[in-house]
Design brief:
Layout lengths: L3 E7 L13 E6 L2 E7 L3 H7 L7 E5 L5 H4 L2 H10 L6 E5 L2 H13 L7 E5 L6 E5 L3 E7 L7 E7 L5 E2 L1 H7 L3 H8 L4 E2 L5 E2 L1 H4 E2 L6 E5 L9 H4 L4 E5 L7 H7 L4 H11 L3 E5 L9 H8 L5 E3 L5 E3 L1
Parallel strand pairs: 3-4, 4-5, 5-6, 14-15, 15-16, 16-17
Antiparallel strand pairs: 1-2, 1-18, 2-3, 7-8, 8-9, 9-14, 10-13, 11-12
Length: 304
């Protein structure tokens, strides 16, 4: 089974604290390293936590609030200093062009690579990246400005062919991939060997959903149904419900209610308000609704 891993670089909210860094995560799938959001200090966190900048494939930006994007100029500049030559693609709302291009033109005139900005559609569920083994999709969240959630998902895995069946039927190498994809095997004598006799079921496909920043919004449930891990913001405790509604954020309890409705395997809550010096209250409120809840923290690694 290939590595599918999420590393939390930052899980704080807008105001700086000594406890948390602004939002950023790394998702490693099938040998590729993707970044979600890039708050201030992201490149320092990558260094601190041993993440290889040279492996970074592309960046996905949920929305254009500063605590999710202020780290981009520095990271882009550093990648140039490190001699990157491969294009860097940033998936973000169209306004990113207006925000980022003047900064790059001023500070990064002679980059050794191209920065490509791919606009994200602000409505609907949309496939924005795929290769033969994974897909990454976007869907709208409910916040004060256009905001997007992301779903990282493995494509359906191939079945496992039984080694003893290869030997018993003298299956040619050229036929093995088709059998893994579900085909029966026809012997030279014309006998059809059923695929279920030759193979065992594939490993279940794994999935990860990122939902930050967002108010409580049941409309996202179909997009994240049954994911292995859901990261959902939990900016406030239930005692601050009025403030959560006013600022279009969620409480820990609301995050847990979404996880329960979506029947996810595990919930990780983050994007904590700077007002909290301890997070046990948030954790207990969420676990009362959805027991399989964990707190995010800088350096946390989630292995799927």
């Amino acid at each position: 089974m290939t590595k599918f891993e999420v590393k939390i670089l930052g899980c704080g909210s807008a105001l700086p604290t000594t406890m948390h860094m602004p939002s950023s995560q790394l998702v490693e799938m099938n040998g590729k390293l993707f970044m979600i959001d890039c708050g201030e200090g992201t490149q320092l966190q990558m260094r601190k936590l041993g993440a290889r900048m040279s492996k970074l494939h592309s960046i996905f930006i949920s929305h254009l609030h500063g605590d999710h994007v202020f780290g981009l100029p520095g990271l882009i500049s550093t990648l140039g200093l490190l001699g990157r030559t491969a294009d860097l693609t940033i998936y973000a709302h169209i306004e990113m062009e207006t925000l980022l291009r003047p900064i790059l033109n001023f500070f990064c005139k002679n980059l050794s690579y191209n920065v490509n900005i791919v606009p994200i559609t602000k409505s609907g569920f949309n496939l924005i990246y795929e290769n033969k083994s994974i897909s990454i999709s976007s869907f709208p969240l409910k916040h004060r400005i256009a905001t997007t959630g992301f779903l990282f998902k493995e494509k359906e895995n191939m079945r496992h062919i039984k080694r003893e069946m290869i030997d018993f039927y003298n299956i040619p190498i050229r036929e093995i991939n088709n059998i893994k994809l579900g085909a029966d095997f026809v012997t030279p004598e014309g006998d059809v060997i059923d695929n279920l006799h030759l193979t065992t079921p594939p490993n279940p496909s794994r999935s990860y959903a990122y939902c930050s920043d967002t108010a409580y919004d049941k409309s996202i449930v179909p997009h994240i149904k049954g994911v292995d891990v859901l990261y959902h913001e939990a900016t406030f405790a239930e005692s601050e419900l009025n403030r959560a509604e006013k600022t279009a954020h969620s409480t820990a309890r609301q995050a847990a209610e979404i996880a329960k409705m979506a029947e996810v395997e595990k919930l990780v809550v983050g994007h904590f308000s700077s007002r909290y010096t301890e997070l046990e209250t948030l954790l207990h409120e969420a676990q009362a609704v959805f027991p399989k809840t964990e707190l995010a923290f800088e350096g946390k690694v989630i292995a799927l």
